[in-house]
Design goal:
Layout (H helix, E strand, L loop, with lengths): L4 H29 L4 E5 L14 E7 L3 H26 L11 H6 L5 E3 L1 H15 L9 H11 L13 H16 L3 E7 L4 E7 L3 H7 L14 H15 L5 E5 L3 E4 L5 E8 L2 E9 L2 E7 L11 E5 L2 E5 L16 E6 L4 H12 L10 E8 L2 E6 L5 E2 L5 E3 L5
Parallel strand pairs: 15-17
Antiparallel strand pairs: 1-2, 2-6, 3-5, 4-5, 6-7, 7-10, 8-9, 9-16, 10-13, 11-12, 13-14, 14-15
Helix pairs in contact: 2-8
Length: about 400
């Protein structure tokens, strides 16, 4: 068979290239699975992605070690992160119920009915109710306003039906403000009975006729609103910490950042409409909360402006229950703290944005506001890194 030298050479070449192909394939698989030290974006498990598409919380995690160790660690972190995010998302959802979970939507769907809730939801509602009672512009009963403004902000052409241009819409907003804040139609009873904790959402008989008169569909009443992402982020961070995974950075679509580990000094930017106006630095672990009344670069939808004789009105998610309107006198705001608690930090930001007196000891802030002389950066920072010299500085609150 091998007397012919040409056939022999062909066989040798065939065997060589076959071996080379097998080696290349194996090497490719090895390279594909190889992991270097550094930060990785952690995706939620595939089976949860459909549910969590709008959860708004992301995780970057730092890993060290050999490739095989890194792969195993990333899988473990992904598992804990995914299940924590799913559990928290389901628990805090205001208008969607899930099997085996008594959540905000469960309470909204069965008003005037006492229901057993988890310790975690009890603690969150207790905190949110206490913050509501401080009466700064936040309310755990603001679900109707949240729903109304979400409808407006995501219209393709919202300006004609904006309350600044539509008396009918302005009347709807006023009616919702009365129901939520001025002449409240809602209350919440939380009970700790030792063996179990319960919650009951009380809704006045006047609510259904009001919805009918406003031609509104049923909307959730209980809603964590402006603190939704903060409560969810804290829930996920607690789960990661309990599992021993603290080398990560959590971010939210609403502008929250939580650095769980010591990675030296971290810089956070105060945004302007043209970029970064200034930056605050904080030693890690730390947290930061940011707000913009204009659309940030990564979120073009859900923001719009209305031109009026009194100036530009900015429409965004931060709505006060005092007026039912998004604030328009502050362009952006940033608060940082060495305390890695997104709820406490977001609460400080809300007090600042709503213009409420508060104790900012341990917190550093900067905000951008338009005045008659132009745009002014106000800050209590002892050292502010100004990136745009066109802004006027007011550091009167600095120590």
């Amino acid at each position: 068979m091998f007397k012919d030298s040409a056939n022999r050479r062909k066989l040798i070449l065939f065997l060589f290239f076959t071996a080379l192909a097998i080696f290349s394939f194996a090497y490719g698989l090895t390279s594909l699975n190889h992991r270097e030290e550094g930060y990785y974006e952690i995706d939620v498990l595939t089976e949860h992605q459909g549910t969590l598409y709008d959860a708004g919380i992301t995780l970057r995690y730092e890993v060290k070690g050999k490739s095989a160790e890194i792969r195993a660690l990333l899988l473990d972190v992904q598992n804990v992160y995914s299940h924590a995010l799913l559990s928290g998302y389901e628990l805090l959802h205001a208008d969607r119920t899930f099997d085996g979970v008594t959540n905000l939507a469960s309470l909204n769907a069965a008003p005037n009915t006492e229901q057993v809730i988890s310790d975690t939801l009890y603690d969150i509602l207790t905190d949110a109710l206490a913050k509501t009672e401080k009466d700064i512009g936040y309310s755990v009963f603001a679900g109707p306003l949240v729903s109304e403004w979400e409808t407006l902000r995501y219209l393709s052409e919202p300006e004609p039906v904006d309350p600044a241009n539509s008396p009918e819409e302005a009347a709807r907003i006023d009616a919702l403000v009365r129901a939520i804040h001025t002449e409240p139609l809602f209350s919440l009873t939380l009970s700790d009975k030792g063996s179990e904790k319960t919650a009951e959402l009380h809704v006045s008989d006047s609510w259904e006729p009001l919805l009918t008169s406003l031609e509104m569909d049923a909307v959730p009443v209980l809603h964590l609103g402006l603190l939704q992402d903060a409560y969810l982020m804290r829930y996920v961070a607690d789960a990661l910490s309990k599992a021993g995974y603290t080398s990560g950075i959590l971010n939210s679509a609403s502008g929250l950042s939580l650095v769980l580990q010591d990675i030296g000094t971290q810089s956070f930017g105060l945004l302007s409409q043209d970029g970064i106006a200034a930056a605050l630095s904080e030693s890690t672990p730390c947290s930061s909360a940011g707000f913009t009344s204009f659309a940030p670069p990564e979120a073009a939808y859900g923001f719009y402006t209305v031109n009026t004789s009194g100036g530009i009105l900015y429409r965004h998610p931060l709505v006060s229950v005092y007026t039912g309107m998004p604030i328009s006198d502050m362009l952006s705001c940033l608060v940082t703290s060495p305390v890695a608690d997104p709820v406490a930090l977001d609460w400080q930001l809300l007090q600042l944005v709503f213009g409420q007196p508060a104790d900012f000891s341990g917190y550093t802030y900067a905000f951008l506001r338009t005045s008659e002389g132009g745009q002014v950066i106000h800050s209590n920072a002892s050292a502010l890194d100004v990136r745009d010299s066109s802004f006027t500085l007011d550091l009167s609150a600095a120590p």
